[in-house]
Amino acid sequence: MTEDQTRQIAKVIKIEEESTGLLAATLEVAADVSATYSKPGQYIVLHPEASEKPVFMALASAPGATELELLIGQPAAEKLQLTEGSTVRIDPPSGNGYPVDIARGKNVILFAVGSGMSAIRSLIEYIRANRDEFLKVDVFLGAHTEESHPYRQHDEAWAADNITIHRTTSRPWVQDVFRNSSVSAENAVAFVCGMKEMVNGVTEALTDAGMDADLVRQNY
């Protein structure tokens, strides 16, 4: 079987501006495709007709969702050229995702900046669906401007499920907001999504607070 034969067709059923510079897209896929999405932090590969290069995108919806949601930055949007009603070839969800099992019965600290919020949103929704399996949950989110923060409309619902959101614009960085907060690294696991410099900064802040570096995990 060739690679083209293993690819699936996804239909864009919704696309809209999520925040400045970011689009939210919802894809309709076959049931056997959505069934392969089992862990928050997994990704799909999109194959736009106009480009020979595939586009890798973390899923923003919760595992088990019948529709797949994406958070798309400007460079990816220009390559994909998605519109409502259009179709795109995809490889089904794959990747290791976040090792959520290590966080059960513990406090959870999440960090993301910009479009990295897609993978962290999938993890937040997973935690909400299994809320009694986790203790305190704190989420540190960063963006360049107030208008470029994605998913602000979900803050109230997340707070209702005892998930505390800490947002910062430009500076201080998310790791510095953590350092200046009362959030404890004791009995906690951290999950991170962002650029290498941000991940390194977050890891340093957490280990300075007493967390073992092995408990700071990414989605691959």
Tell me, what's the shape? globular
Low-confidence stretches: none
CATH topology of the largest domain: Rossmann fold
Average the pLDDT over all residues and give the rounded result: 94
- How would you name the CATH homologous superfamily of the largest domain? Nucleotide-binding domain of ferredoxin-NADP reductase (FNR) module
Number of helices: 7
| Distance separating the two termini | 27 Å
Estimate the helix proportion, in percent. Answer: 10-25%
The count of domains is 2
Query: Strand percentage, roughly?
Result: 25-35%
Question: Could you give the count of β-strands?
Answer: 11
CATH architecture of the largest domain: 3-Layer(aba) Sandwich
Structural class: alpha/beta
Using only C-alpha atoms, the radius of gyration works out to 17 Å
